[in-house]
Amino acid sequence: MSVTSLLGPAQIRELAEQAGIRPTKTLGQNFVIDAGTVRKIVRQADVVVGERVVEIGPGLGSLTLGLLEAGADVVAVEIDPVLARLLPTTVARHLPGLERVDDEPTADGAPVVRLRDAEGHDRLTVVLSDALDVHVLPGPPPTALVANLPYNVSVPVLLTFLERFASLERLLVMVQAEVADRVAAPPGSRTYGVPSVKAAWWASARRTATVGRSVFWPVPNVDSALVRLDRREPPAIPVTRGEVFAVVDAAFAQRRKMLRSALAGVAGSSEAAVTALVAAGVDPQARGETVDVEGFARVAAQLAVVARTSDDGTDRDRPGTVAP
């Protein structure tokens, strides 16, 4: 499927003027004005015809039109009421023959507008909501998330959608270059930290391209990059994700501390932390930046063993019962 054209600089500014929109730093609004960049994002996301794709922060519709051009059915989550109202009109101008349907709100209470083709197929569904408040999406489950994410909420949005929507197989997002580096960083690198580990729980991440500032309006003060995440199975351990993430947060709360000290609080003592770390096969003198997500998962599992042993006063669950 194709559309007559994607949005260019003049069209973006005209749409913004007609709607009385002035991009705000508060909402992280930097609109993409380059069709080539839009198509690069869609290509790198491997979007296919008929795929259900969720887009966060569609703004004036540049990327939305690129996804529709590729044949995807788009669920767009927009926090700005003015932009949410404008998007269906913009898309309808580029894809004639679509009928607007004002639907029932989602289970979260978010207003929903659909653009439906003559066969009754929903090509665009607009959900007016803060992405972090979304727990359900209308229609079939999406298999991909593709978005130009606001810089100030990019990591929370990524982690939230990976957690809440198990149907998502891959995510391709444009974010601040520094954020892309942190999300995709391997253990031992300078930028490896909490976002790196938590993203790795859900997916394998890699930075795929750098994006110049000139493709945005207004021009941001930072560079951007594309990062792709492909879902994988989390580590198989007998503790919850929350318990693992608590260990991760503690390990990086004071980056320069050795793990035996950094984890003393969650373990109950430095001695208990050392016991769990050794049983998990992690050097107690190491720092969090050297441990991968599987290592943190093993440590969390062994901390649970230490806690049970301490609670009942026996050694029947001696550290080491969870294989390092």
Number of helices: 12
What is the CATH topology of the largest domain? Rossmann fold
Described by its quaternary structure, the protein is single chain
Largest sheet: 9 strands, mixed
How many angstroms separate the termini? 51 Å
Structure explained in plain terms:
The chain is α/β, with parallel strands linked by helices. It folds into two domains: 9-231, Rossmann fold; 241-312, Helicase, Ruva Protein, domain 3 (Orthogonal Bundle), CATH 1.10.8.100. It has twelve helices and eleven strands. It has helices spanning 9-19, 35-44, 62-69, 81-94, 154-164, 177-184, 194-202, 241-253, 259-262, 264-267, 270-279, 293-312, and strands at 31-32, 52-56, 73-78, 99-103, 112-116, 122-128, 144-148, 170-176, 203-211, 216-217, 224-231. Strands 4-5-6-3-2-7-8-11-9 form a nine-stranded mixed beta sheet, with helices on both faces. A two-stranded antiparallel ribbon has the order 1-10. The longest helix has 20 residues, at 293-312. The protein is elongated, with a radius of gyration of 23 Å. The N and C termini lie far apart (51 Å).
